[in-house]
From TrEMBL:
Protein name: Cohesin subunit SA
Entries under PANTHER family matching the protein: COHESIN SUBUNIT SA-2, STROMAL ANTIGEN
Family: Belongs to the SCC3 family.
Disordered, as annotated region: 1012-1050, 1178-1206
Example of a GO MF term: chromatin binding
Role: Component of cohesin complex, a complex required for the cohesion of sister chromatids after DNA replication. The cohesin complex apparently forms a large proteinaceous ring within which sister chromatids can be trapped. At anaphase, the complex is cleaved and dissociates from chromatin, allowing sister chromatids to segregate.
Keyword Nucleus: yes
Main location: nucleus
Length: 1219
């Protein structure tokens, strides 16, 4: 009875999630709802009807449970336990009235919670065994879907699982005093769950195992309560019996004896139930094939051992956990470790775990290196608990296997290992350490810090100090932030009898100290550990500010002293000089620490004068950079000190350079060393500081020029001189104003061209180290610059001279500047300096900016096709895909295919198709790859409207069909087969308008299917005709057919009509072959393609009668005569076409047609060809914002166009020479 309420709430919860509520009355109590509906009927539940005879199930779209929609949706309940208690109380009342009906409800509860659509009837319950009932329910299962409630995702189903488990616990808890001992209710339920857990159906097995394990947990709780009551009763009995005879109450003794006997009987009964569940379910299911089922068993046995350790914490049960630690699934191994953590956490249980620990300790240690990071973390935590319980269990080798994990790149593993290390090395304090001071060299922290340094050195991973600090930060941050003790260890003299730190230990201590300062100020893990910076909480931000203030106050005083002591040690000084980067510079003023600042600046100056190591000098430079902050009042003081130091360095360099470059004298090694050391210092400072006012370029130019002339300049001097010159250029580029960005872009493109892989050609392999390849970020910035500054409207251009936007000359000048920018970038694409696919953003502008940049873009496409045909085709289709996505974002998924945007993309695809020319063999692989990428894009995204609707990008097939004419016949079949891989059977039957792109594309792949040889021969015909046209000889007498490329200009209606005509089969005349020579020619003399197609056609022809043969021969003769007439007309057309092309190009001078040169022997009328030629020229495609009287040639007379496709590396474009 109460179970129905639970499942009613469950069903209703699902329906609410699917927004399928019929009305608001479903939320009301049955009586209220019936009153509103005018019905005075009693709930069928209270009439005792069987639950599960009608209705539907939420996961199958049907419902088989008769249930009233009452109570509250339990996702909204604040106290589900109270709700279930009320439900179970109602069920108990029903059980007392009729236990068969109530048990039948409970049985159906378990059956239908498994996802079964069937229900157990009263007849089945009375006359059928459990095995027969389970077999019957198996037949009712929905085999089409593998989903059932416990495996379905989402918060609603997680709520169902928790409610399902909680309900079982409440059921046993409410029945623990009477019903569970009636030898009927529990026997029936345990028998049912045992049978279901052995089922072949995963849903039954999973659900029943979960129910049985939760039922066992509830029984363990009952057994624990019985044990406690028995102990209490026994103590009361012993206390009463020990009284003197005069005060002893015999009646009370008898009552206590009777109570103890009843409790013992109940406990025996509970033990029998638990044994039945354990042996019938657990023993079989803990090694089930499904990992989720195994995990349930291990999780629950851990609960039993922790809850009732007296009964379950022994080797008979622990062995199952130990065995399962070798499970193949990380989920199950994780449950084993978490179960054991609950046991080892209680120190009182350690004695019972000794045998288990000795047996499975090695396995636990090996699991610290588990491939699943979550398992490794829990294994380390378990070993930490083992270490906490006893120091003698883990050997030194066991501990060392965990120690090295503090350097793991996975932060949770490292943090767990850091906690283990801290427990092992730092948590033990002897009685002699109790009276030590809190801070300083002799403090407890001082000893612990030295221990940390010793561990750091012994690990032999010195470069990972930041990893060690990060691992210890959560458990030992107070130790690591004890700056006073650290400084005392470095500056104070050791006490008598105390061993001083070695030089190596001091170096390690300084590195650990720097890492701790960085960790406190930055509050994020080191590089390589962690996904990025996280958002700090208010408390963490306050701690960060407090630590930074404390660091500044302490190290502002101590840092000059440390630098003075270790000024000659390069490694120590390099680390110490990084500390000011983390200072709060305002403290120097507010804390009256100016004298310490002066001392720091003096020490830095001395370090610069003493050292020539690059790391030390760069650290000094970065320290000056950190201190020279204009926001703080100390800026002037630091700036003066920096300027004085640089003045001395530059003056010294110029003086040494003058002596070094004197004519007639050969420089000695000492002079070269002085020049090199000074140049190193200047170069290191120039990296972080702008030294333009010292004019270092002139000095370095003299140095390099002399070296080039004499050839005897030391290599290191040349390297640092070039590096210093490099910094000079970078600082000057940083000063370039926004108005000079075009010039800077051109210089950058030219520099990339000069230092590209082209520079090693012609035997200049020695220049290979100078090759520079731009990374992806730089390529993206270059492309964005082109898109922002080149592809703009005339009115948006802000680069015209004197701001005269309306002046004609300024517009033309601005256009030429933009053309030069585009040409500079296209050179990078052509010479493979940048990725070819970046050209997609350029190619998609072909139609829109055809008048301005059409020749540049077209020449770029031609050059890229010569480099890599396949990659060029992929770039072209990528540009169309980008335009299609932009259109979807603007117009939405329900756009009109007749819109100007879609038609523009389709027209661009047609232009792209024409650029492939007529030789299909040359472009065969490229065209095939283009269709492959297009098909994948069309079916990539499903429909946002759900199943049954076309994919989101299906309309792209309409654009892709523009390239179908470029496919060979056999390739069309291959592409069609590839298309069918993405199609379903329902798609092939669709005829709605939204599916027209798919229909049209399929038709384009099936067009020309009866042509057996022409698609293969077209390439040979094109090459042969080109040769013949050069020799000015008439065409051969061989019959030719109109190529498929020329037929692409026909209208869609004509194509549909032709397809329909080809598909018509009449009983009078068989379809004639296109080429008579194919049938009559000797197969031995045919090309492979011709012989194959001829044989294919011969085997598939049916015998013809006499009349059909005569009709076929007459048709062949008529076709031969028509071909001869077309051939003669073609010769006349060739001459006319040649004159027309010269006339058109002389007259327009605007652009070339999109097609490659047309072969002269193509059969078609002159008039049709002229019309197609005019269409290919497309004179009025795009109008530039200039008077129509001026075409490109006239405009170019005003200013020469620097773009020359034939010599794209010309010096007039680069403005520099290669060498």
């Amino acid at each position: 009875m109460g179970v129905r309420i639970l499942m009613t709430s469950y069903c209703f919860l699902y329906r609410e999630a699917d927004t399928q509520l019929s009305s608001d009355t479903d939320l009301e109590e049955p009586d209220v709802k019936n009153a509103k509906l005018g019905k005075g009927k009693v709930s069928p539940w209270r009439e005792g009807q069987v639950w599960g005879s009608e209705g539907s199930w939420p996961w199958s779209g049907e419902c088989h449970c008769q249930c009233r929609l009452v109570m509250v949706v339990f996702s909204d309940l604040s106290d589900t336990w109270v709700f279930f208690q009320s439900v179970v109380d109602d069920w108990i009342e029903s059980y007392k009235n009729d236990r068969d009906i109530a048990l039948l409800d409970l049985i159906n509860f378990f059956i239908q919670c498994s996802g079964c659509k069937g229900a157990v009837s009263a007849e089945m319950f009375r006359h059928m065994q459990n095995s027969e009932i389970i077999r019957k329910m198996t037949e009712e299962f929905d085999e089409d879907s593998g989903d059932y409630p416990l495996t379905m995702a989402g918060p609603l189903w997680k709520k169902f699982k928790s409610s399902f488990c909680e309900f079982i616990g409440v059921l046993v808890r409410q029945c623990q005093y009477s019903i569970i001992y009636d030898e009927y209710m529990m026997d029936t339920v345990i028998s049912l769950l045992t049978g279901l857990s052995d089922s072949q159906v995963r849903a039954f097995r999973h659900t029943s195992t979960l129910a049985a394990m939760k039922l066992m947990t509830a029984l363990v709780n009952v057994a624990l309560n019985l044990s406690i009551n028995m102990d209490n009763t026994q103590r009361q009995y012993e206390a009463e019996r020990n009284k003197v005879m005069a005060k002893r109450a015999n009646d009370r003794l008898e009552l206590l004896l009777q109570k103890r006997k009843e409790l013992q009987e109940n406990q025996d009964e509970i033990e029998n139930m638990m044994n039945a569940i354990f042996k019938g379910v657990f023993v079989h299911r803990y090694r089930d094939a499904i990992a989720e089922i195994r995990a349930i068993c291990i999780e629950e046995i851990g609960v039993w051992m922790k809850m009732y350790s007296d009964a379950f914490l022994n080797d008979s049960y622990l062995k199952y956990v130990g065995w399962t630690m070798h499970d193949k699934q990380g989920e199950v191994r994780l449950k084993c470790l978490t179960a054991l953590q609950g046991l080892y956490y209680n120190r009182e249980l350690n004695t019972r775990l000794e045998l288990f620990t000795s047996r499975f300790k090695d396995r636990i240690v090996s699991m610290t290196l588990d491939k699943e990071y979550d398992v490794a973390v829990q294994a380390i935590k378990l070993l930490t608990l083992v270490l906490h319980s006893s120091d003698e269990v883990l050997t030194a080798e066991d501990c060392e296997s965990v120690y090295h994990l503090v350097y793991s790149a996975h932060r949770p593993v490292a943090v767990a290992a850091g906690e283990f290390l801290y427990k092992k090395l730092f948590s033990h304090r002897g009685p002699e350490e109790e009276g030590m001071p809190r801070r300083g060299r002799q403090s407890l922290n001082g000893n612990l810090i030295k221990t940390t340094v010793f561990f750091f050195l012994e690990s032999e991973l010195h470069e990972h100090g930041a990893y060690l600090v990060d691992s210890l930060w959560e458990c030992a941050s107070e130790l690591l932030k004890d700056w006073e003790s650290t400084i005392s260890l470095l500056l104070d003299e050791p006490m008598p009898g105390e061993e001083a730190l070695t030089d190596r230990q001091e170096t390690a201590l300084i590195e650990v100290m720097l890492c701790a300062v960085r960790q406190a100020c930055e509050c994020h893990p080191p590089v390589g550990r962690g996904t990025g910076k996280r958002v700090l909480t208010a408390k963490e931000k306050k701690t960060q500010l407090d630590d930074r203030t404390r660091i500044t106050e302490i190290f502002a005083v101590a840092l000059p002293l440390l630098l003075a002591k270790y000024s000659v040690d390069a490694e120590k000084v390099t680390n110490l000089l990084q500390l000011p980067q983390f200072f709060d510079l305002e403290i120097y003023t507010t804390g009256r620490l100016e004298k310490h600042l002066e001392s720091l600046l003096r020490q830095i100056r001395e370090v610069v004068e003493k050292h020539t190591e690059t790391d030390v000098l760069e650290a000094c430079s970065m320290t000056y950079h950190a201190l020279c902050n204009e926001e703080f009042t100390i800026f002037n003081r630091v700036d003066i000190a920096r300027s004085q130091l640089l003045d001395e360095l530059v003056d010294k360099f110029n003086r040494l350079l003058e002596d070094f470059l004197q004519e007639g004298e050969e420089p000695d090694e000492d002079d070269a060393y002085q020049v090199l050391s000074t140049l190193k210092r200047i170069t290191a400072f120039h990296n972080a500081h702008d030294l333009s006012k010292w004019d270092l370029f002139t000095s370095n130019y003299k140095l390099l020029n002399t070296g080039l002339q004499n050839g005897d300049m030391p290599e290191q001097i040349v390297i640092h001189a070039m590096q210093c010159t490099h910094y000079v250029i970078l600082w000057n580029l940083a000063k370039v104003s926004e108005g000079s960005s075009n010039k800077a872009f051109t210089i950058l493109c030219d520099a990339l061209m000069i230092f590209s892989h082209q520079m090693v050609s012609s035997g200049r392999e020695q220049l290979e180290p100078l090759i520079y390849t731009p990374d992806s970020s730089l390529q993206a910035e270059l492309l964005n610059f082109i898109l922002d500054h080149v592809f703009i409207d005339q009115d948006d251009d802000n680069n015209s001279t004197d701001g005269q936007q309306d002046d004609e000359a300024s517009k033309i000048e601005a256009l030429h500047k933009r053309r030069n920018l585009l040409a500079a970038y296209c050179k990078l694409i052509i010479y493979n300096v940048v990725e070819m696919n970046t050209g997609a953003d350029i190619f998609k502008q072909y139609m829109r900016y055809y008048n301005d940049y059409g020749d540049i873009i077209k020449e770029t496409m031609s050059k890229t096709r010569q480099i890599d045909k396949i990659q060029c085709a992929k770039t072209l289709i990528l540009s169309l895909q980008q335009l299609f996505n932009e259109m979807l974002s603007d117009l939405g998924c329900n756009f009109d295919r007749s819109s100007s945007s879609f038609c523009g993309i389709k027209e661009l695809a047609r232009r792209f198709s024409l650029t492939f020319g007529l030789d299909q063999l040359k472009t065969r692989e490229a065209i095939a790859m283009l269709h492959k990428d297009g098909i994948e894009f069309a079916f990539k995204e499903p429909s946002p409207q759900g199943e049954g609707n076309p994919p989101l990008n299906l309309a792209f097939l309409d654009i892709l069909s523009e390239f179908s004419s470029k496919l060979l016949r056999q390739d069309k079949k291959t592409v069609h087969l590839y298309l069918e891989r993405f199609m379903t059977f329902q798609m092939a039957l669709q005829r709605e308008d939204c599916w027209l792109p798919l229909i049209s594309y399929r038709n384009s792949l099936q067009a020309g299917g009866d042509d057996d040889t022409m698609s293969v021969m077209s390439g040979y015909s094109s090459r042969g005709s080109s040769i013949r046209s050069k020799k000015a000889k008439p065409a051969s007498t061989g019959k030719r057919k109109l190529p498929e490329e020329e037929s692409s200009s026909c209208s869609t209606d004509a194509q549909v009509w032709m397809n329909r005509e080809q598909n018509v089969q009449t009983p009078v005349m068989m379809p004639s072959p296109h080429l008579t020579s194919t049938v009559l020619r000797d197969p031995k003399k045919m090309r492979p393609e011709e012989s194959y197609m001829g044989v294919y056609q011969h085997h598939h022809q049916t015998p013809m009668d006499y009349n059909t043969q005569v009709t076929w021969m007459l048709a062949q003769r008529q076709q031969a005569e028509a071909r001869q007439q077309q051939e003669r007309a073609n010769m006349q057309y060739a001459k006319m076409r040649s004159h027309m092309q010269h006339a058109i190009r002389r007259g327009s001078g605007l652009m070339e047609d999109d097609e490659e040169p047309i072969v002269e022997d193509v059969m078609m009328s002159s008039e049709d060809r002229l019309e197609d030629l005019n269409e290919g020229m497309d004179f009025d495609t795009m109008d530039i914002d200039l008077p129509p009287s001026k075409n490109r040639r006239e405009r170019s007379e005003l200013k020469p166009d620097y773009f020359d496709p034939s010599s794209i590396m010309d010096d007039s474009v680069l403005n520099v020479s290669m060498f």
